[in-house]
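Input.
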Amino acid sequence: MDNKLGFELGSLVLSQIDSPDRPARTTFSLLDREWDLLPEVFPPYTDPGPGLFASWVPYEKGSRFLEMGCGAGIAAVLAAQRGCERVVATDINPAAVANTRRNAARHGVAGQVTALAGDLFDALDAAEVLDIVFWNTPFIEAPEDRPYGPQIERAVFDPGYALQRRFFCDVGPHLAADGRIYLGTSEAMGNPAKMLRAAADAGFGGRRYRSESVELPAVDLGDSPEVKAHTNERGTVDMDFTMYEFQRR
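Output.
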């Protein structure tokens, strides 16, 4: 595990989500829309990443689109609204699949979004071919031997980046010849170098597609040595949310 700061912050986010003092919410606002939220699903409003990534995807009218790890289904709903011909959403968490279906119905695109439960590409038909694959990855690298706890942890942690490796190994048969992949990550909190190696080993080239930086107050992140080491003179920790684009080489 290379990024200790990322692991600390990922653990902090999960502890805050699991806190008994956290107000229960069944809806939230994002991208000028209201969304339903089930309790077992990662709340997309807790950081800027989900909204930024979903807004950055270059949805193309008439394309075949997959949202991997769909969570509340934000990108899947946007893809349907933007005219994608086929929209598929998958998640290993059954609650996320139910949440995506609920939000597709809420926004009038239930008939255009197919939500399936499964691990990465397992839920797809072997013949399913897609033009655009988007995944807001669980980019916090955890130790390889760390077991998952509640389902919601799967939206945050990728032990040893094994998911990233499996993703690139398995995406090929489902991606059109000129298809593109968009992965959400973070330079500061994730491990893009390991992600790029996994992509290259599977025959994909990647480039930084878009990024936005934010400053987080250090006092909100605890007082660990890692946080202190990354705190600047303004008392903040610089963070980013970055999307990479991948194509076959």
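The chain is about 25% helix and 30% strand.
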